[in-house]
Write a structure and sequence with these properties.
The structure is a single chain. The strands form two sheets. The chain has a four-stranded parallel sheet, sandwiched between helices. A two-stranded parallel sheet has the order 1-3. Helix content is 36%, strand content 14%. The protein is α/β, with parallel strands linked by helices and 173 residues long. It is built from eight helices and six strands, in the order ββαβαβααβααβαα. It has one domain: Uracil-DNA Glycosylase, subunit E (3-Layer(aba) Sandwich), CATH 3.40.470.10. The longest helix has 14 residues.
């Protein structure tokens, strides 16, 4: 059974009615603090992702944002997340089929970061929707690859316009 620290969906987003599902790794300390997986959380990942989506003209009502590992995986004080292990992802993806089934308007999924990308094969067996991948929006990932911010914008733009699949994230994160 999954641990207890699972933040909810942001009610400002489209959620069940969304066209796009963005899957990140696992909720960070700010998501646990606010109780939501949200673009409005006070952390660099949320700020970067919000800016990238705005630049790609993706509206919040078109989004649901979740995590491949939906619970906090970090220190006891919930101040620092640790990288997801294969076992975390294997456990977490079991919760994705009911989520996908609850999204009748779903047109595409974006796997954000390496941990989320590790769910690609599972999702390919679970849904026929488009699956794209991009860099994690963390400050560390953006700083490690100066082109990552713009690459994410291009991928999100591609998602909204229905262009060909693009996969980024082979450099950095």
């Amino acid at each position: 059974m999954a641990p207890e620290a699972v933040p909810g969906f942001d009610p400002s987003n489209g959620n069940e009615q969304a066209r796009f599902l963005l899957l990140l790794e696992a909720p960070g300390p700010k998501a646990i603090e606010t109780g939501l997986v949200s673009l409005d959380n006070p952390d660099p990942s949320a700020r970067n992702l919000k800016a990238q989506l705005a630049a790609a003209d993706i509206r919040r009502h078109d989004l649901a944002i979740w995590n491949v590992v939906p619970w906090f995986i970090g220190d006891f004080e919930k101040r620092k997340i640790r990288p997801a292990k294969c076992s975390d992802v294997r456990e977490g993806v079991r919760y994705l089929p009911p989520l996908l089934a609850a999204m009748p308007n779903l047109q595409g999924i974006v796997l954000i970061g390496a941990a989320a990308r590790s769910s690609h094969i599972f999702l390919s067996h679970t849904t026929s929707e488009r699956i794209l991948a991009c860099h994690h929006p963390s400050a560390r990932a953006m700083n490690a690859n100066p082109g990552a911010f713009e690459e994410n914008i291009a991928i999100f733009s591609n998602l909204s316009t229905g262009g060909l699949s693009v996969s980024a994230g082979t450099r950095g994160e």
